[in-house]
Amino acid sequence: MSRIPEAFADGPAFVPYLAAGDPNYEDSLRYVEALEAGGADVIELGLPFSEPIAEGPTIQSAVVRSLEGGMTPRRFFEFVEDLDVSVPLVCMTYYNLIYQFGEEEGPRPFVEKAAEVGLDGFVVPDLPAEEADPLRDACDEFDLDLIFIVAPTTKGERLQRIMSQVSGYVYVQARLGVTGAQADVSDQTTDSLSRLSAWDVPKAVGFGISSGDHAERIVAGGADGIIVGSALVDIVAQGHEAGDDPAEIARRLTDLSEELVAGAGRGFAQRVPKAERT
Amino acid sequence: MSEASETDETRPGKFGEYGGQYVPEALMPAIEELTDAYQRYVLDNEDGFMDEFRQRLRDFGGRPIPLQRADRLSERYDREVYLKREDLLHGGAHKLNNALGQVLLAKYMGKERIVAETGAGQHGTATAMAAAHLDVPCEIYMGERDINRQRPNVFRMRLNGSEVNPVTTGRGTLKEAISETMRDWATNVEDTHYVIGSIVGPHPFPAMVRDFHSVISKEAKRQFDEQVGTQPDAVLACAGGGSNTMGAFAAFVPDESVGLYAVEAGGSSLTVDEEAGVAPNSASLSTGTEGVLHGARTKVLQDRDGQIMESHSVSSGLDYAGVGPELAHLVDTGRVHAVNVDDDAALTEFHRLSQLEGIIPALETAHAFAFLERDHESLGETVMVNVSGRGDKDLEAAIEETAKRDIDIAPDMSVFQGAMR
Ligand SMILES: Cc1ncc(COP(=O)(O)O)c(C=O)c1O
């Protein structure tokens, strides 16, 4: 078993995302470590792909910065080894990069290498459950989790199919569209969560969460965790553009992480334990 | 349509190992809905969909379009050369076959909005026309670089009432425009249909787009019977994504005596600049490797890590790093020959066809003629070239590209200096 289930064991999990290597290798290491300092329970690390069809403008720009800085799958694995963090790490990338790695055809070499450097699982936004068997098999072989995204449009048979494939946690997409921070969070979330109530994996909600307030509402609505990407990537992008000191940028990342963790905590406190309701 | 649908789909959505559905989860329900609609309306003609489609292709599109003997080319190459004149289809390119089919399908499905991407602007133009004709609001994504290369088409789309959204990411060509349109679709999937412009993307697009375009080869087959009395020995078509290619091939695929040639853009060179991540060509069938791009497993131009490379062609409609999965499969099985010609050769034939036949071809189409010029001796007695589109949209690009080269058959424009450019 991977280390991911533990991360959700006590209280709501905070799952931040950053693109590895954004805006450069050295600073990016520090930024990821700043997330753990701010209370991250699991960290999603983006391995940039040239055609990120599920990402909005914020993460697209991060991908460009990282690729221009020379990020490759091999560098990514070095990056994971160089990181000084102890929470579980999930690799978020697109299927072509997983498929092309190594001499042998298919996803196995990539997964083997991921296990070797200490990754815990994958999120692959362009790999639906229908096409996922080869990656699922490799993940089983090396004891890694395969996390799937459930969209507001996912219903019926598709939900069942995903349920039979998912492990680690399920990524509940809070609204339709691509990634990007929002001023408000969607109320589609509660609806989505209720459809998943029978699933025995933790439910982490993402897409659009950018403040402690959002985190509070999402967790109060029943989420087991919150996933935050673009709001954090924005901090990196703006700091980088303004030429700010990387230590200062890291501090801002820690600050926002703490705000999100605190919000999630408040949300959790509002939840009435089942036992008390009856 | 059934015979075309069976050309080479080994399992639904798969052409050998190619094809499939590699898209974000948010799109999967829409793709299932579309797959269902494709089955019912296109394959089973529910509610008379295909009857209405054929009728509109006739009355609005101008089909059937001629199969014309090219007298001077026949003489030049000492064989019978026939032209399938898709450039005479309404809008000036084969693209209307598909655009009209998909916009009509969107209406049958009750969708309220259309999005599309475009490279050369021909698919965007065809979609804008079909959307105006069928009264559906339409937004089109187009790379900024392509907007600059194809201004007349941008104006045509706007004239027909479509929005045109510039895409600035990457090199601002078709690849980026497709990614951006997929993002729009993922955001507005409940009321929007994505009219994809070639036989690319997730299932059912490659099969469905082929079916809409297969009218080209079905018509040609019948015309060969009636006008010539024999079927062609070879069929040539230029391949970007491959829609006019598969349209021209589909009905001939079961007939092994017909040689099928997909002519790709060799650009300025077939070798790749790994360092810069740029392929100076768009020849994904000839030089690409298996990968996953824009929802399908197919042949793509990629680096060793799997990053998709920027492609290049003098013709924006061929400038794409991928190709349709069915075509990739037919090349692997040996049924289709993947060949390529470079920018210079295509530009030269752009001039030659204009002079010899009075047909100014699209720069895309000119690639097929460049292959004919180079390899006609191996092509048999009777050759059909699919004239995928006319070159009006390319005049600005042709002036500029001709000026950069020494093409002996190009018109001498120096006497007009000052008046041109
Ligand atoms: C005239 C013409 N021919 C060919 C193409 C290439 O597309 P496909 O290979 O999908 O037919 C285009 C694309 O825009 C085009 O405009």
UniProtKB/TrEMBL annotation, chain A:
Amino-acid biosynthesis is among the record's keywords: yes
EC id: 4.2.1.20
InterPro entries recorded: Aldolase_TIM (IPR013785), RibuloseP-bd_barrel (IPR011060), Trp_synthase_alpha_AS (IPR018204), Trp_synthase_suA (IPR002028)
One MF term in the entry's GO annotations: tryptophan synthase activity
Active site residues per record: 44 (proton acceptor), 55 (proton acceptor)
Assigned keywords, A-Z: Amino-acid biosynthesis, Aromatic amino acid biosynthesis, Lyase, Tryptophan biosynthesis
PROSITE patterns: TRP_SYNTHASE_ALPHA
Pfam families according to UniProt: Trp_syntA
Catalysis: reaction(s): (1S,2R)-1-C-(indol-3-yl)glycerol 3-phosphate + L-serine = D-glyceraldehyde 3-phosphate + L-tryptophan + H2O
Pathway annotation: Amino-acid biosynthesis; L-tryptophan biosynthesis; L-tryptophan from chorismate: step 5/5
Family the entry assigns: Belongs to the TrpA family.
UniProt cross-references to HAMAP family, sorted A to Z: Trp_synth_alpha
Assembly behavior: Tetramer of two alpha and two beta chains.
Described function: The alpha subunit is responsible for the aldol cleavage of indoleglycerol phosphate to indole and glyceraldehyde 3-phosphate.
Protein name per the record: Tryptophan synthase alpha chain
Annotated organism of origin: Salinirubrum litoreum
Gene that produces this protein: trpA
Automatic annotation (TrEMBL), chain B:
Pfam short name (any one): PALP
Modified residues (N6-(pyridoxal phosphate)lysine): 95
Cofactors required: pyridoxal 5'-phosphate
Residues covered by the Tryptophan synthase beta chain-like PALP domain: 61-389
Keywords: Amino-acid biosynthesis, Aromatic amino acid biosynthesis, Lyase, Pyridoxal phosphate, Tryptophan biosynthesis
EC number: 4.2.1.20
Quaternary assembly: Tetramer of two alpha and two beta chains.
Pathway: Amino-acid biosynthesis; L-tryptophan biosynthesis; L-tryptophan from chorismate: step 5/5
Entry protein name: Tryptophan synthase beta chain
Top-level taxon in the UniProt lineage: Archaea
Catalytic activity: (1S,2R)-1-C-(indol-3-yl)glycerol 3-phosphate + L-serine = D-glyceraldehyde 3-phosphate + L-tryptophan + H2O
Function comment: The beta subunit is responsible for the synthesis of L-tryptophan from indole and L-serine.
First-level EC class: lyase
GO MF entries: tryptophan synthase activity
UniProt-listed InterPro entries: Trp_synth_b_CS, Trp_synth_beta, Trp_synth_beta/beta-like, TrpB-like_PALP, TrpB-like_PALP_sf
Species assigned in the record: Salinirubrum litoreum
Lineage, broadest ranks: Archaea, Methanobacteriati, Methanobacteriota, Stenosarchaea group, Halobacteria
Family (UniProt): Belongs to the TrpB family.
HAMAP family referenced in this protein's UniProt entry, alphabetically: Trp_synth_beta
